[in-house]
Amino acid sequence: MVVLAIAAACGGSASHPPAHIDRSGPPSPVGPASAAVPAAAAKPVSYPEPPGGPPPTGAWRVTLEFPRLEGRPAGIIADATGIYLAGALLTAEDMRSRRWAVVKLESTAGVVAWSSVEDLPRSPAPERIALAGGGVIVAGQDESHEATRLLRIERRDAGSGKRTWQRSFTARDPKCTSTECASKDTFGGIAVHGSSVVYSATVDRPIEEAFGDLSLAKGTPAKSYESRSDLRARDVAADDAGTYLLEDTLSNVFTLIKMTDGKLAWKQTVESSAPRVVVGPPGVVLWGTTIEMRAADTGAVVWTSNLAGEHLDVAVDGSGVYATVMIDAKPAPYFAVAKLDAASGAVQWVRRTSEYDQNRPSAYIATDKDWLYLFGVEGDKWFVERRRKSDGALGDVPTTARTVEIQAKKRK
Q1: CATH number of 6-19+54-410: 2.130.10.10, 3.40.50.880, 3.30.9.10, 3.60.21.10?
Q2: pTM here?
């Protein structure tokens, strides 16, 4: 079982849900066991092999087991302080993903530094994770109340895992925290911009795109922007030059807009129907089943990569664009990690990570200065791989099992 969610991720890494995912509830599990093999192309594309070299020193592979619970990833982010994972947990008897999990691994050997699981009344469906200002930001939906669906955003101290603030609110009015004023909002994404956590969401009745920001330090509402009708929020990214909103209409017409100081800087139609966006040093990167680069100052398409496939997730930094992907190939598809040239989108190398029938796709990817981190599901466990950044190599490393022993805390 795997969630094809594009997280987040923000801050140089991103991974999250596929195009046309039903955001009216928790992300649907999609993986080799439940997804059909993609239709074969007339001629599968041949991609460059990774550069050769000795096995990496310092690579590792760990599995994370939650006793009596099955893991369901939602995103990964990494920096010099560690690797941070977010996802939902479920049981065979209860498929509502009611447990919201956040875990930190230390970088050297993948040891669990801290972890937290919270047991909610209904489906929280965490979908994004970001790092900023010494804090870990996790966000998604909170379906605690039968008649409502709220946004939920929380911040934890990156060093200790202690939660510093949490808000469950409606996108229509960030001050709303009760069922009387709440609506059925669906989560669209988060980004950290300066001292704010910028969020985007969809208000179901009527269908409206709405976005605003919360204080990074305290989680209090900082600013709300005017909602626009007949638009659904898909994702949001931000840099020093502005905020980038990816949205679509009820007719599935996707657009990317840039807002600067609350005003429209530019608007571009997105032909690829990409549901995810991140901004990094090379520009604005969008992806769904394909990857494209756009100029941050105009929104014009710079390139569209020929790397294509399901289970696609992207991380971007100054060294390039990295992706996980399921490659359509003969006699069967396979899962891989790839690097793209940031200037042209050319595929520099593709490394096979697992076979389709092994049922352990890498759903998410993150980077730090020297390493790539792949995050996915193997059976009922999470797995994380630390691979060499220059070529995606893992080497012949054993799998180290980690058990996350946590008493799930019920929210009052």
Answers
A1: 2.130.10.10
A2: 0.87
